[in-house]
Amino acid sequence: MEITRNNIIILIILFSSLFSNEEFNYKIKYFGIHVADCSISSSDTLFNNNAKIKKVIFDVKTKSFFDFFFPINNKYSIYLNRENRILSFTKNTDQPKVENFLKTEIINDKVFYSDSNFEILPNYYNIFSVLYILMSGKILPEYFIMEREGLVYNSSINLDEKKMMYTLDLKKIESDDYSIIPHTDIFTWAVFMENAQRKIFINSKTKIIEKCVFSKGLIAISAHLNP
Q1: Separation of CA 169 from chain center
Q2: 101 burial class (0-12, 13-18, 19+ CB within 10 angstroms)?
Q3: What is the DSSP letter of 82?
Q4: Rounded CA gap, 5 and 137, in Å?
Q5: What is the pLDDT of residues 100-154, one digit of tens each?
Q6: Which has the closest alpha carbon to 45: 94, 11, 79?
């Protein structure tokens, strides 16, 4: 077949449709003050010779003014298959007095944190896969297991259709108290505060997450979609 300019354009369009990209930007507020920005990008990618994989990256950075007080530079990436199984997770976070680096590896088709024997089972979710599933308009089971750096939680999510608000409840399974790291980053800490309220608001038309609020008493961290 002769390679023409039109053929090249068609191939580019087909390739772009297979490996599409999406990005959403959020304002992170603490006590109602805009302190950081978060970008969430997703794309189709190759992983272990499988092209039906979704790569999702969460990138959080403090605004320049707040770098003087509490600089944050956190990045989380996750690979999910079509059944939303976690195939890979990497966390690289930097904030005052806390630096975390975590990554996973596949051994005999099982996913483990590197240098540990903790397996991320096929039916486990984490907060990043949960947020992505909700953002993509897919349905989560009402009850599921959420994993956080080696800790495991019984989890449930309920939708208030009038408010278009999900409520996420977490209860740690004490028998599996196996934290990979001693101290976590501020975002993960806020999500998993004991007895916290976790509310996720969805746009009724687009199904995109408009706002997340994680709060306990006077502590409140929220993310607002930046239009």
Answers
A1: 16
A2: exposed
A3: T
A4: 37
A5: 999 999 999 999 999 899 999 999 999 999 999 998 888 899 999 999 999 999 9
A6: 79
